[in-house]
Amino acid sequence: MKKIVAFSVLCAFSALVSGCASAAIHTKDPDLVAKYQQKLLESKACQTDADCVAISKGCCLCDGQDAVNKQFQMELDKQREKACGVGPCTLQMCYTDIDVACVDNICTGTLKPMSSYYAD
Fold first, then answer.
1. Which of 3, 61, 73, 98 has the fewest beta carbons closer than 10 A?
2. Considering only CA atoms, which of 61, 58, 57 is closest in space to residue 28?
3. pLDDT at 28
4. DSSP 98
5. SS3 of residue 99 by DSSP
6. CA 24 to CA 67: how far, in whole Å?
7. Residue (of 25, 34, 17) closest to 87 by Cα position
8. Amino acid 62: pLDDT
9. 89 backbone dihedrals φ, ψ, rounded to 5°
């Protein structure tokens, strides 16, 4: 019984430490991350739905997605890679995929319904 309790405590501590550590070090440069997020805001102008794509808001998958004009996608991807580096992110199931649309000449995104993550 003592071994099970000790193992459980060890597992919980390991999960806590790895989660906290990854949250603290997954960005390389906070200033570059701030510039990336500002560029996201400036990259939303569109004419049609086809102009818009979904792109990561931050360094980890669970940071979510944002809708931007596709002409800025490559530039934003390079900027995000430079800002985020290769630090670890916690691996967990995230439901952050969005459907994109051009609404009033601004790329917008809405979360996809949960049913879209599962096969029928």
1. 3
2. 58
3. 65
4. E
5. strand
6. 26
7. 25
8. 83
9. -125, 150
pLDDT tens, 75-103?
A: 999 988 888 876 677 767 778 889 999 99
- The Cβ-side half-sphere exposure at 115, using a 13 Å CA radius, reads 1
**Which structure tokens are listed for 80?**
């995000």
Parent domain of 37: 2-117
Burial class (CB in 10 A: 0-12, 13-18, 19+), 86: exposed
| Domain count within the chain | 1
Q: Where are the beta strands (DSSP E) in 2-119?
A: 52-56, 65-69, 98-103, 106-111
DSSP secondary structure letters along 72-115: GHHHHHHHHHHHHTT-----------EEEEEETTEEEEEEPPGG
